[in-house]
Amino acid sequence: MTQQPPVSGTSRMSRTSRTEQPRPAPSAPASTSSPPSPPSAPPVLAAPRPLAEHRLWPRTFHDRLTTPLPGLAATVRFAREGAVRPGPEGLADIPRLPYAPGPLPRVDARTVAVTWAGHASWVVRIGGLTVLTDPVWSRRILGTPARITPVGVPWSALPRVDAVVISHNHYDHLDAPTLRRLPRDTPVFVPAGLARWFHRRRFTRVTDLDWWEAAELGGVRFDFVPAHHWSKRSLTDTCRTLWGGWVLTDPDGQRVYFAGDTGYGHWFTRIGRRYPGIDLALLPIGAYDPRWWLRDVHCDPEEAVRAARDLGARRMAPMHWGTFVLSAEPVLEPLTRVRAAWHRAGLPREHLWDLAVGGSQVLGPA
User: Fold this and answer.
1) Are 258 and 122 spatial neighbours (Cβ–Cβ below 8 Å)?
2) How far is 325 from 69, CA to CA, in rounded Å?
3) In the prediction, which pLDDT does 93 show?
4) pLDDT tens per residue across span 44-67
5) In angstroms, rounded to a whole number, what is the distance separating the alpha carbons of residues 251 and 109?
6) Which of 60, 138, 207, 249 is an S-S bond match for 221, by CB 3.0 to 4.6 Å?
7) CA 263, CA 46: separation in Å to the nearest integer?
8) What is the C-alpha to C-alpha distance for residues 342 and 176, in angstroms, rounded to an integer?
9) Once rounded to an integer, what is the mean pLDDT over residues 178-190?
């Protein structure tokens, strides 16, 4: 949902998490005779943590913000001039939004397939598992009009859900009515501090992770990675839980990156370096206007294409558009802009998986 942008600060790991953050190498004395240094190897990945581990976390994650939360002056400006919805001309294209639900593709344990249910909700089939990302099957969420395209996958058409990943606690990514549909023993992977929310709802297999930490389920690795965003679900819990994205890696090494909700910034290069060979990046392209208000927390389409290149991703699938009206850009503009940006970047057209809501794509075995 459209939220206020996120206080600058250096990252500080939690009391119980000591995962090493990449640091610049110390400077060496200049020497004209020294050979050039070889390319640095990717950082060693952390060993998977136990599933459903009980963790103690800091009271706040404000130190993870990469931009300041808006102050009084910005809030007054937004109240005076900020538009939060498109005008009539920007809504006129709602009937043209791509919506093409179909059956989920058949897959085996070595095939990766993705189906876009709308917004940031994907059905990811990987390593023999069915994984839901930020599942929102509700018709409306708090503070926004009803969805403008139906859910692309009927709940009744889903196979057994083997796992759920959550990027952060904003209402358009953490939807309680949808999650109530799941068995309470469904494995759930969430940001640091968010397990409490699930435990209060009697979920029993909840794993919360810090940035650069991982867990493993059924041979599939779930790595939690940083994002340029923030968290808030009530008036008193700003940044009390972490936010981020997920890298899913199957036993054959095929990788899907789910960005969740994020602005553009340095984390994409860091993620690509740590997880080389990302086969598909699910990246947000909507909810970006007015830009001065939202640039720190939401990519625009051009930034999403740039992020895909920073990641070294072979393919990109856009998301976070065409489902809920969260900001002021015309409803069809994210799609036309991302296609144009992809073309300008000289990238293969077939590697932009600009799916309709309900559409699917299959990535064959490695």
Assistant:
1) yes
2) 23
3) 97
4) 899 999 999 999 999 999 999 999
5) 9
6) 249
7) 25
8) 35
9) 98
